[in-house]
């Protein structure tokens, strides 16, 4: 069971106490991500994540790092399409310090002009690094191919053009619009005293007040499958195929995870064995499902010699068609289901994983799921249900993305 409490201002506090642990993971989650940005704001959610570590009214950037290092804790953050999380992992006795630092950077960042200009350089280098990593680039491109010119397809990092145009005023406008108590969750997992947590939350977050109007409409709508390509001077051609799947929170995600394991989610998968082990056409070939609040997609990726790219695409499509038509055997289904269950159980041994799952679900779906509920849903998955969902997903028209040498030629052939 979970501990839950809502502050008067609307901040939700939720925790999963594990008394036999000596550590605790704590995260401040806010509904701020590239999904909610206007085109000219693209990348500002991620930029704010960087800026909140650059100093507050009470702490310099160095103070922030040194105070957590002094107790052997970890402090970090990440930005996704739909949320940003600032988190810490510490020994249980240092939870008060972790909550103090997290709330301080979350609410009291200085947003100094000089720091903003300096950090632009850091983020521009991050964008350049992603551009120089074709595997990253093709995953960005497949989002655009699958969802078109919709917010969900915008890159989390933004572009060189948008980042260079950020000003202190534009950053603060976005911050005040999205950083609101009602769109904030404080999540914990590990060993803690719940009464102390409530007292600390009230002390550090109780004065947090809404200023802006919030996220607004951010629905994602189906678009026609597309083929996109980007020619780059690379040794390999990197390719992705994408198929529509269920959104976050759907019970279809468990059967989807099962058939994904057989398709390309494990070393024994059809794609890994066929393309890498039997033919030696790729070093990296895999598939994975990804879900958002109102959409989802299954992505297949491979990196291969440009001369072999057409054959790799053919083999992927052939395997997809075969699985859609023939379904999973009983042995394949049982093995994949066991993999899914074991992966979930092993992940539960990490307080960070538990906190992440708890915070993300509470923020984006407004509910929570116990370990027992998740395992019960996994155990309830049937081969018939899995094959039916797999047939629907893998029979859907797919989008293609190609990045690298020969991408244009292959892309034009696929259109």
UniProtKB/TrEMBL annotation:
Any one GO molecular function term: metal ion binding
Q: Which GO terms describe its biological process?
A: proteolysis
Q: Where is the Peptidase M16 C-terminal domain?
A: 166-340
Domain (Peptidase M16 N-terminal) ranges: 17-158
Q: List, alphabetically, the SUPFAM superfamilies matched.
A: LuxS/MPP-like metallohydrolase
Q: What is the organism of origin for this protein?
A: Candidatus Alectryocaccomicrobium excrementavium
This protein is called Insulinase family protein
InterPro entries recorded: Metalloenz_LuxS/M16, MPP/UQCRC_Complex, Pept_M16_N, Pept_M16_Zn_BS, Peptidase_M16_C
């Amino acid at each position: 069971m979970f501990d839950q409490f809502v502050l008067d201002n609307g901040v939700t506090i939720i925790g999963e106490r594990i008394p036999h642990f000596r550590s605790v993971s704590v995260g401040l989650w806010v509904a701020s991500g590239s999904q909610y940005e206007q085109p000219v704001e693209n990348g500002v959610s991620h930029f704010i994540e960087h800026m909140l570590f650059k100093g507050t009214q009470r702490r310099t950037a160095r103070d922030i790092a040194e105070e957590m290092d002094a107790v052997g804790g970890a402090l970090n953050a990440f930005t996704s399409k739909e949320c940003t999380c600032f988190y810490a992992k510490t020994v249980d006795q240092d939870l008060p310090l972790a909550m103090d630092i997290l709330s301080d950077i979350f609410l009291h960042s200085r947003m100094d002009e000089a720091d903003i200009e300096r950090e632009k350089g850091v983020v521009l280098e991050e964008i350049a690094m992603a551009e120089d990593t074709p595997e990253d680039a093709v995953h960005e491109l497949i989002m655009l191919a699958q969802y078109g010119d919709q917010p969900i397809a915008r890159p989390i990092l933004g572009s060189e053009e948008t980042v260079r145009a950020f000003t202190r005023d534009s950053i603060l406008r976005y911050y005040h619009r999205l950083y609101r108590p009602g769109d904030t969750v404080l999540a914990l997992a590990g060993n803690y005293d719940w009464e102390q947590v409530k007292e600390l939350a009230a002390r550090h977050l109780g004065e947090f007040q809404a200023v802006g109007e919030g996220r607004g409409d951010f629905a994602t709508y189906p678009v026609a499958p597309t083929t996109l390509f980007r020619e780059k001077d690379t040794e390999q051609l990197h390719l992705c195929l994408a198929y529509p799947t269920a959104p976050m929170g759907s019970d279809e995600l468990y059967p989807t995870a099962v058939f994904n394991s057989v398709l390309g989610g494990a070393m024994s998968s059809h794609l890994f064995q066929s393309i890498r082990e039997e033919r030696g056409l790729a070093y990296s070939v895999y598939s994975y499902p990804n879900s958002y609040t109102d959409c989802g997609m299954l992505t297949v990726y491979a990196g291969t010699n440009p001369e072999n790219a057409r054959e790799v695409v053919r083999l992927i499509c052939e395997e997809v068609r075969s699985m859609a038509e023939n379904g999973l055997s009983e042995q394949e289904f049982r093995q994949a289901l066991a993999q899914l269950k074991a992966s979930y159980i092993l992940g539960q041994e990490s307080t960070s994983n538990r906190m992440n799952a708890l915070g993300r679900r509470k923020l984006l779906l407004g509910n929570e799921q116990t370990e027992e509920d998740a395992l019960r849903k996994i155990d309830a998955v049937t081969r018939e249900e899995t094959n039916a969902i797999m047939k629907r997903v893998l029979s859907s028209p797919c989008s293609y993305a190609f990045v690298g040498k020969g991408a244009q030629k292959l892309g034009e052939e696929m259109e």
